[in-house]
Amino acid sequence: MGKLEHSPSSSDTIELHQFEDVLVTPDPDHVHRHPYRQSSLITEEPDGSDEEDDSLDEGERALLGQGRRRVPSRSPVRPGHGTWAQVKNLVVETSPTLLITTLGLLFTGELLSTVSHWKELSRVDELIMIIPVVLNLKGNLEMNLSARLSTAANIGELDKPETRRQIIIGNLTLLQVQAAVVSFVAACVAFILGRITAHSHSPASPATSANATLVNATASLLHDAALASLSGTLDARVPRPPLPQTGKKISGPQEFIMVASAAMCSCALSGVFLGSFMCTLIVLCRRWGLDPDNVSPPVAGCMGDMLTLSILSFVSLLHTRIETTPLPLIFVIGLSCIAIGLAVAVHRNPQVTHLLRQGWWPLFAAMIISNGTGLLLDTFVSRYQGYALIAVVITGLPGSIGAIFVSRLSTAFHAAAITILPSVVDRKPHPSARLVMTTLLVVGFPIQLVFLAFIYMFGWVHLPFVFVAFEVLFYLIAVAIALILAKVITEYFWKWDLDPDMYALPIHSALMDVVGQSLLVACFEVASLLGAKVQSLKA
């Protein structure tokens, strides 16, 4: 997106405390960097306080809550503006969200475990293979939506009825266009994998991919597990009998149309329900004085997986009963025409027209990165007990924490690029960016302990103390890396004139797949070398 024009007295840099400067350079050749209209620019009053204001850290103010901007519209103000009051708000808002979404992954994993054993779906391999692909691509779309709307809320655009309607309707329309594209791509990927499987060894039980659902909060590693199950190199990760291999249909045009129709219908329905839910959540957060950057990214990831999986499962089940009818083809053609019409509507909406061409390559790059990670590291999954469960906290939770920081950083850059510095009256002590990172690091620690206690209490896994101690250490390393990656990736995209709300989250999620799984494997290896019994019975 283009960069905003600054008034001559505006600061041209965003200084993140104790980090390198991130330039926000005016660019008159572009209309604006911020995705919404330039009317949000606020003219700076010539009060002669420019030199004083230049010393403030606008990036940090935007990172840490209210008071970071002045807008003529209604702006909820939280009680208490001090440094520690804002840190308290950050802890209060992120802790329950991260805890609930992390536990929600367990139920999502169990749901996939159940769905993957439905005989109707198991007769067509592609209906199982498409699940992780759809969850990967669709999950990133929902997180991008939450980041865009959080930015709009935090800079005050959702406070204006005339722009709120355009922004919300435009983003929901854009989501439907994106959902139609990614669902068709997912069907193509599943079809290709199905053709490869037809010429390879007998696939492992779908329970393999079912248990790996727990690995990632954004469900990108579900795709990895599905690919690994297709390779036939792994046994089932739980003692469940394999599904019967007889009676499955060989993939053909009819199966492809059915899978494409199921994926497109599911993504369209999921986009309507989840997109509306996320819009409502962010508007309510704004109205109640909560920062949507602290709430929406984990919710988008968890709710997106659960709702999309539920809808996709039942829609796929219905499609197995209409497979031989013309209905799947009619659905594909009809949804494609609707998507084209919606794309035209998005193009005519000044609030979102520029988003139509943005953010595509990170979605597919993230899928490729996650696939490579799964093929490389999935060999270790069958060797260690409780691998899939432990991976939730060492991969999914750091990824969610990093997503929060990405969303906050992106909001900070957008806010600093379009607003003036607060007046002397508004000046309050604000925590540094490093303190934000430290706070997020500390927030996740008790959640991790609660999760470990939860799975131990239910008897899902029993691991020695040596492993638990190293797991805690490696978890903290994973969170630290997630936060550093969030900062580096967000700054990189902003520097190259790419909106972090559209580009950063998919790449961050995929890279955390690599980091989280690598650290978890290292943790098991170190504990094993120290004599801890962490290997599975089969290994």
From TrEMBL:
GO terms for molecular function: monoatomic cation transmembrane transporter activity. It is found in: Membrane. InterPro entries: SLC41_membr_dom, SLC41_membr_dom_sf, SLC41A1-3. The keyword Membrane applies. Keywords: Ion transport, Magnesium, Membrane, Transmembrane, Transmembrane helix, Transport. Residues 131-314, 393-523 form the SLC41A/MgtE integral membrane domain. Its main location: membrane. Residues 26-57 are annotated as: Disordered. It comes from the Eukaryota. The chain crosses the membrane at residues 174-193, 256-283, 327-347, 359-380, 387-406, 435-458, 465-490. It is a multi-pass membrane protein. It holds the Pfam family MgtE. Residues 44-57 have a biased composition (Acidic residues). GO terms for cellular component: plasma membrane. Belongs to the SLC41A transporter family. PANTHER family: DIVALENT CATION TRANSPORTER SOLUTE CARRIER FAMILY 41, SLC41A_MGTE INTEGRAL MEMBRANE DOMAIN-CONTAINING PROTEIN. This is SLC41A/MgtE integral membrane domain-containing protein. The lineage of its organism: Eukaryota, Fungi, Dikarya, Basidiomycota, Agaricomycotina.
